Amino acid sequence: MAETLHEEVGCAHRVGLVVDDDEMIRESISEVLADLCDEVYVAADGLEGLEVLEHHPNITVIVTDIAMPRLDGVAFAKRARELHPA
């Protein structure tokens, strides 16, 4: 098992994204990711998540809710993977 997330994802600079429509959950998860990542961005739904990803293509870790308004987590993940296959 890798000692750190750096080793696990094989990169020197870890950047996270939390996509969740529930503010309390979004903030809680972003606090956990802040312990593992150098930077953490948040988005309130899938469309906002895609906008963040467009401006920050160096995101290496994404945590998303499934049931969200405008664009759900499954559709968000599919589109994010299409835009950034790596």
Task: Describe the fold and architecture.
The chain is of the alpha/beta class and 86 residues long. The chain is 47% helix and 16% strand. The protein has helices at 5-9, 23-36, 46-55, 73-83; strands at residues 15-19, 39-43, 61-64. The protein has a three-stranded parallel sheet, sandwiched between helices. Strand 1 (15-19), helix 2 (23-36) and strand 2 (39-43) form a beta-alpha-beta unit. Helix 3 packs parallel to helix 4 (73-83). It starts with a helix and ends with a helix. The model has no long low-confidence stretch (mean pLDDT 89).
Sheet with most strands: strand arrangement: 2-1-3
Q: Helix share of residues?
A: 40-55%
What's the N-to-C terminus distance? 22 Å
Overall average pLDDT: 89
For the sheet with most strands, the description reads:
3 strands, parallel
Q: Enumerate the spans where pLDDT stays under 50 for 5 or more consecutive residues.
A: none
Question: Radius of gyration in whole Å, from Cα?
Answer: 12 Å
Identify the overall geometry.
Answer: globular
The arrangement of helices and strands along the chain is HEHEHEH
Strand content: 15-25%
Secondary structure: number of strands: 3
Oligomer: single chain
| Helix segment tally | 4
Structural class: alpha/beta
List keywords for this structure.
single chain; 86 residues; alpha/beta; three-stranded parallel beta sheet; 4 helices; 47% helix
